[in-house]
Amino acid sequence: MLQDPLPDRLSGLRPTPDEIQLAARRIAGQVEVTPFLHSRTLSQIVQAEVWLKFENLQFTASFKERGALNRLCSLSGQERARGVIAVSAGNHAQGVAFHAQRMGIPTMIVMPRFSPSVKVERTRGFGAEVILAGDTFDDARLEAERLVHSRGLTMVHPYDDADVIAGQGTIGAEMLAARPDLQCLCVAVGGGGLISGVALAARAVRPDIEIVGVQTDRFPAMYAAFKGVTMPCANATLAEGIAVKSPGGLTTGIVRRLVDDVVLVSEGDIEHAIVLLLEIEKTVVEGAGAASLAALIRQPERFRGRRVGLILSGGNIEPMVLADIIERGMVRAGRLARIRITIRDVPGELARAAAIVGQAGANIEEVAHQRAFTTLPAMNAELEMEVQTRGPEHIEQVLQALRAAGLPAQLYSS
User: What is the pLDDT along the chain (414 residues), one digit of tens a residue?
Assistant: First the structure.
């Protein structure tokens, strides 16, 4: 926990708490004051008092609207007339494009080539010119910087800008206004704009609050900067919204000054968190939006018994990706299983095996019947059944029913 006096920690930092209050007044009525609700069930699961800030309920389904709008409001008349440019994996793009369209500001957005199509198409739908460049955010950023100079546009940076940070800071102000007794804030980190703004706002109200950043272990750039180590980044992550290889200079300074720790979570942790939020809270979040809950899943002992505020930062996820995550979550929970059954290769045996599985209360989704590609003796065959069950105990009941009927069966594990 940081121990420096509050004035020393906030001294010289931008934006100031006053600038965050100005941002709140600027964007009032143009973005949602999103719900901040206690989750009884998640609290029971992680044994902490969990409060959720539903930023995925913004019109563009992301907190990014706040910072984008505040930056656009600060433009001069000449800058508005020339137009703006932004680089983004999708959420900042939509926030800039939506509000720029409302304000009549020409907009160009540069996005990585493999940005989720739902984000690309929604950005175009807000009237922005979209350019796809490079494989990562940093590749797209280089192209955007070139276009700034060649076309005379004003950059609306996704995180390393005081006005953008101030806009994001309004989230922290809203959380602390609703629950001034929060003991910890757990915040996803990409370039650092969100956690910087939230940390500045929160410490101005509650100097002793603990602030923990969360990154995916596939893109640990801010973690490495915070810890003073060197770590490589991968090429892709489920949490593409925080897939930043180079955090901002402004944000890194704020994080080092005001954030207590930065932790890493795995892709599996993020998948698990997405499924929990869908099942329990009936809310859809993208990978980055689930990162803060993933930290509580990963390190429950760190947060046990504390009042923790989490930000569900975005909900823009590809439907097919969400479908895959749900299915993988069902496998982890033991509600979807693949079993192998050895049968005699004679008429009626497949039907008999299927009837036993059905009588045991499992629902068969798929069946594969294999004669040739197996090490079984001739006149035998192998079945692979994908079945829906009620959980691990039910899977074992199905296997026992098959074995009791003389059909060797085992759980497929690879």
Answer: 444 555 567 667 889 999 999 999 999 999 999 999 999 999 999 999 999 999 999 999 999 999 999 999 999 999 999 999 999 878 999 999 999 999 999 999 999 888 878 788 889 999 999 999 988 777 888 899 999 989 999 999 999 999 999 999 999 999 999 999 999 999 999 999 999 999 999 999 999 999 999 999 999 999 999 999 999 999 889 998 898 888 999 999 999 999 999 999 999 999 999 999 999 999 999 999 999 999 999 999 999 999 999 999 999 998 999 999 999 999 988 899 999 999 998 899 999 999 999 999 999 999 988 777 777 777 888 889 999 999 999 999 999 999 999 999 999 865
Q: Which of 64, 88, 119, 292 is catalytic?
A: 64
- Choose the catalytic residue: 39, 115, 292, 313: 313
Q: Which residues, 6 or more positions from 43, have their beta carbon under 8 angstroms from its beta carbon?
A: 49, 50
Distance CA 274, CA 289 (A): 8
Q: Is 64 a catalytic residue?
A: yes
DSSP 30-87: TS----EEE-HHHHHHHTSEEEEE-GGGSTTSBTHHHHHHHHHHT--HHHHHH-EEEE
Q: How far is CA 168 from CA 40, 175, 404, in A?
A: 27, 12, 61
Q: CA distances (Å), 10 to each of 141, 159, 235, 254, in order? A: 29, 19, 35, 9
> In whole angstroms, what is the distance from residue 249 CA to residue 371 CA?
62
Element housing 255 (H / E): helix 249-258
Structure letter (DSSP) for residue 375: S
Q: How far is CA 97 from CA 12, 69, 125, 196, in A?
A: 32, 10, 9, 23
Own/partner long-range contacts of 317-320 (Cβ < 8 Å, ≥24 apart): 317/116, 317/118, 317/274, 317/284, 317/285, 317/286, 317/287, 318/116, 318/117, 318/118, 319/118
Residue 94 CB-density burial (10 A; 0-12 exposed, 13-18 middle, 19+ buried): buried
- Residue 352 tokens, joined: 């008999």
Beta-ladder partners of 87 = 110
Q: How far is CA 265 from the centre of its chain?
A: 11
313 is catalytic: yes
What pTM, to 2 d.p., does this model score?
0.88
The Cα 26–Cα 394 span in angstroms is: 56
